[in-house]
Amino acid sequence: MSFSAAEGESTAEEIHIPADIEWHMLDKSKFFFLGAALFSGVSAALYPMVVLKTRQQVSQSRVSCVRTGVWIMRYEGLRGLYRGFGTSLTGTIPARALYMAALEVTKSNVGTTATGLGLPEPSAAAVANAAAGLSAAMAAQVVWTPVDVISQRLMAQGGGGGGGVKYASGVDAFGKILRADGIRGLYRGFGISILTYAPSNAVWWASYSMAQRVVWSGVGCLMCKNGEERVESGGLRPDAKAVMAVQGVSAAMAGGVSALITMPFDTIKTRLQVLDGEENNGRKGPSFGQTVRNLVREGGWTACYRGLGPRCASMSVSATTMITTYEFLKRLSAKNQEALT
């Protein structure tokens, strides 16, 4: 893959970066095994930010992220920042496997189709990335929504926001939700989850594709001025550190944009999943409309943006670590390592 970088006013240099690794080029068993290990580590590192976001979203008063974190550490200890982590991790592995498979298959097929229809390479890449993000999110939510419902109930109950029912563990929560509401209870918020994560992923992957081009243009100018290594056919070849840095910065930019756009949906989704029937005297949990009205009554429309700080931080850091880990994973899992250089 190559990008053009302006040099001076009349000349341009091409930046040659390692080619993207397509689905058919991967050793699937290595890809899924290493992916489960790597992303479990990433999930463990980022989980406390998810807990902080959830506590803020279900709180009926405005409490800062710092105060929430201090309160958890004082009264619950470090364990409070990892409530529901076991349940979340159990669901993350199959959900990630579905996500990665849907992502790569869709990206490869849509990219080939878009190019065949005559779209220029930048547009084809953006369309393929958006379609891949959309399909991957929808596939993963089949597994992730029940896990999300259980883990968020466990996260919220330490802060008094989980309703009248108390859960001893993920298994206990699973049984109680199933007995009270059936399968439907485990998929509470599924529709709003799709509305939150599918567009969010589409926006993120499309933004990531475009952000890379913008960042590479700026990096290319610096490389031209610094006289970086040139390849035999002309142009510039950045080293592995530069490639990773550009991927990380582009991912963080895309994560911030995506978090801001989809934050209201995420807050409503969390409220729907955490508040249960027992909190409403045994009646069915609040509807989408009731949840929105409750939020607006509590703090105006800005209440829909509670937890924005932790979510922006979580999504930006998560996106950066996810994309660098993901690209590293793909290179480790490639069948032909020599073809990557």
Automatic annotation (TrEMBL):
- Please list every transmembrane segment annotated in the UniProt record, as residue ranges: 31-52
| Main localisation | membrane
SUPFAM superfamilies with a match to the protein in the record: Mitochondrial carrier
Protein name, entry field = Solute carrier family 25 member 44-like
Concerning its family, UniProt says: Belongs to the mitochondrial carrier (TC 2.A.29) family.
One Pfam entry name: Mito_carr
Q: Which domain of life is it from?
A: Eukaryota
Transmembrane as UniProt keyword: yes
* Keywords carried by this UniProt record: Membrane, Repeat, Transmembrane, Transmembrane helix, Transport
* Topology class, membrane: Multi-pass membrane protein
Write down any Gene Ontology CC term: membrane
Record flagged with keyword Oxidoreductase:
no
| InterPro entries given in the database record | MCP, MCP_dom_sf, MCP_transmembrane
Intracellular or extracellular location(s) = Membrane
Q: Which organism is it from?
A: Salvia divinorum
Q: Where are the Solcar repeats?
A: 27-109, 124-214, 242-332
